[in-house]
Amino acid sequence: MKFVGKSVKRVDGIKKVTGSLKFVDDIKLSRMLYAAVKRSPHPHANIISINTEKAEAVRGVKCVITGDEFTKRGGLYLEDKNFLAVGKVRYQGEAVVALCAETEEIAQAAIELVEVEYELLPAVTDAVEGMKADSPLVHPDLAEYHWAPVFFPKPGTNISNHYKLRKGNSPEAFEKAEFVVENKFFVPHVQHVPIEPHTAVAQMDVDGFVTVWASCQSPYAVRQALSVAFDVPLNKLRVISPAVGGGFGSKAGTTLEGILIPLAKRCLGRPIKLTYSREDEFENAYVRQGLHANIKTAVDDSGKIIAVQNEFVWDGGAYTEYGVNIAKAAGYASAGPYDIENVWTDSYCVYTNHPVGGPYRGFGMCEIHFGIEQNLDIIAEKLGISPIDIRRINGMKPGGTTGTGEVVSTSGLMECLEQVVSDIKLHEKPVSNNPKKVRGKGIACGWKAPSMPNNAASSAVIKLNEDGSAHLLVSAQDIGQGSDTVMTQIAAEVLSISPDKITIRTGDTDHTPYEWQTVASRITYSAGRAVFEAAKDAMDQLIELAQIKLGIYKRDLELRDGYVVSKIYPDKKVAIADLAIGLNFEDGSAIHGPVIGRGAFIPPNVRNADKHTGLGDHPVVFWTYGVQGVEVEVDLETGQTKVLKVASCFDVGNIMNPQLLEGQFEGAIVQGLGTALFEELMLKDGKILNKSFVDYKIPTADDMPEMIIKFVENPEETGPFGARGVAEPAMVPSAPAIANAIYDATGIRLNTMPMTAEKVLAAMKAKNSKG
Amino acid sequence: MKGFEYYKPSTLKEAVGLLKEHRDTAEILNGGTDLIVRMRDGHSAPGVVVDIKGIKELHELSIEEGRVFIGACVLLNDIGLHDVILKRYPYLSQASLSVGSKQVRNRATCIGNICNASPLADTATPLLALDAEIHIYGEKGIKTVPLSDFFVFVRKTILQPDEIVTGISFKDDPENLGIFYKMSRRKEVDLSTVCSTVVKRDGKYGISFGAVAPTPIRLPKTEAYLNENALSEAVIEQACKLALEEVSPISDVRATKEYRQEMVQVMLRNSLSEWL
Amino acid sequence: MKKWIQFTLNGEDVEHEVDVHKTLLKMIREDFDLTGAKEGCGAGECGACTVIMDGKALNACLVFAVEADGCDLLTIEGLAVGGVLDPLQVSFIENAALQCGYCTPGMIMTAKALLNDNPNPTTDEIKEGISGNLCRCTGYKKIVEAIEFVVKDQNA
Question: Nearest-CA distance from B64 to chain A in Å?
């Protein structure tokens, strides 16, 4: 292949290295107004009164709005949220009042003058407590909400989804089992920390047309949500996402866009901008849900897992319109990448008065694997077998069945395992040259499927230009992962023209065709297929026309380097430039008109699982498998852990662009390291104690380990050129691999994240005083 | 950020005049890396800002007449990479280079770090251990005050609203030995969980710790003990025990009291062990 | 309060009346429409606003605009002279040292200042030197490689 599989340079590279790419906060429009938001200082309270008089009186303030004017609830999977609080506030930071003014300063000064009176309510600050019968209710009106039929909220409780998986007969298997091991794990909230905070601008014109510029992963999802919330028809609502400075899930769905629409309605013809500060980002953008996991495993003496019983209690935060699906995804993935006959899982998404949980890279997988992969090592040690062997015995191989009963046809897990074991030299015990430090190695497996509705769709349009160049239109967002480049490569490969002859345009619901969302590691796979189909459609049209022009049967024609060429007589060809807007005949007449390639794709045959048992033979389109191996060094005196080396191997189906693919893994490994060792939203009574970079630390270049990144390619049948999604799976094994390595080094096991120096030291001391 | 009046005087006299005139509402602008953050967070809202970077003598770093003098406007990066400081006081260099990021250190100053008076100020412990003196300019002229008397409480010093610190100085001692130790969550660009400097000059110890009390402190009891007892493993252990009595760390978002107590011992033990 | 300041901006002499309480970052972005420097945190922790003033890399969010008076200011927009990319910019593209691009201008300016000060840094010096620039996308590996590439190239 000419372009696919090559390290084609990023098509957006020059704009980014010169700082000329305009992100949403860089956009300056004439007569722009600036929004400010009054937020709740309490995690749970009734709103008694709101007084906006003083704010309204400030010169330069244009309008002030409260939630009472827009009480329609919205949400992706469960409609439980409002853009401005209605009647009560459910987390510290929730937006209560918004206003806009001529300058940012006036807006900031005026918002201080808004007075809100609250009646404090007892807050739910622990998901397990929140499930108890006497717990205060975060959403007492849950019964009135609407939700997609694949979710099962329990009105009258804080449970917004109870997912069940019942494969085989776990209770029976546990009774007969020789060894039963039970462990608890806890993962706190973390935040995505995209370096670009959320930003949006909205403008409503006199003719009723609304334009929104938003740094968002999914312009069509934003369009849909706003259309429903504010009764604006889709053909009059345009969402543009010009650039996204990192998403990781935080910019999926909708966040702040809805606050601007009611303001825009009152200030017709004027664009209104709202930019989050870094503090807003920690408090008021999505966070990753917290997890309390209980994993019980039955094993026979050879190391074969006979049954698992999992209870996942998710701290979903104040609104779980997105989180209900994380509970579901974690549920159907709860067996991990292992072939287990009996799987019993209850995965609960629970409301708390914590920041809003939402999609975060991994969508539940990182959190559950922290437990699953440590649990496996614990079992292995009890049985006296190695961490490698227990994974060799139980790991998914072609022909195995998943937790939902799906038969697996492709799985490179075993190959990845052997590769990582070799690359990290797992059999060689690492030794530190410093007597006060110890080293250890650990491995972890991971898997993930794209968690999306069965009908999540992609589409693409290719327009040929008269000079033989082309425009590629998609709404797949390049949020850094490189989709602009890979989509271009796919089109270039099929059309057989150089990538620099193709200009990709994205993120404009008026001009680029529908894309469900840029999430779920689905874009290379799904949008890639749509682009492939569009290019093929254009190719078919070109060949049809060439057939007429050249008088050669289309079976014997192909595209090559900007021409339609005969496979048999290579000098018989016609430039695609000459066919781009139609075919001209000698008599002066012409046919066909412009060549526009159209492609659309929905993953085939993804079917609902049974709602009572969770069983289904094809509930997801594919699984991505992989393994990470880690070497760490732990300081015995301070507990500080340094990750020295990470080896990663994943089955990616087909490497579309080696450099960009490596980049995804390098980023995922370092992000995983951050969550494993440093990151935690420290919450006390529902209040965030560390909502800034001073005390929420993410890795710097100095924390970067040595990374050995390899791939295995077992093609994904339905993927473009065999590719499957990888961006999230890449991060899944990070934290547990580090945890297993810390155990190998020190003999201590940490069941909670992050594994800070203080926790490691305390655990080592406790172990030494016992032993 | 709220509006303010900005002045950039070119002499100390002018600067102090402005500070006196706008007593209740003026703040000094030096590197700005603390002030601007406080203003952004709403903790500070001066009506008048007096930029002292226009005063030439404040930019001096000199070693003359047996004293090292670091002027108020000398940048942390410049101190950290200064030939003589690197060679003779490598621990002061390390402390300077451990504050913030490179970009921050291209604006931030040692004096700013000191005057901000955070309990964990990284440049405080080496200077305290060196018995440094703060030079203060007021209407009545210049006075020097031992650094140990300069800190009063968390973010509070003896500096009056119409006074300016012109620099800090300490006795130049080419034979000195010292070790700086910074314990933080992340190696680069982090506040100290605990920081320390141990200095030995003329056979006498100077031991200073940060983030274990409302201000950076010296440990006089521990120093006295070490001055009288030759170093050995047993002596070092006893010193650590004494140190524990002289510190009073708290638990906060960065660490617990217990972890800090443990780190005080680890840091002191490792520092002294270098000289065993 | 407004003040007139004079400074050199990307090689050009400019005179500008600025709101005294505006940070250098806000002035660059709002008054001069040079939006390459970004506000990632506003508090000097993320480095996305890094520019070079009088030869030193600094966080523009921690400087008042008025302090630029008499100074020589270089932003990312001034790096490619006459449309010719700086070797660092070329290397970042060649080595795929960027993903979303938001931290990139700040990262490149820090690297530029680093190499101006020390044309032959070790890998550790590079890692330490850019630790004031946060990146969430790349994991830093290709960024370090891109800088090393320029070092090797320039010292060859």
Answer: 38
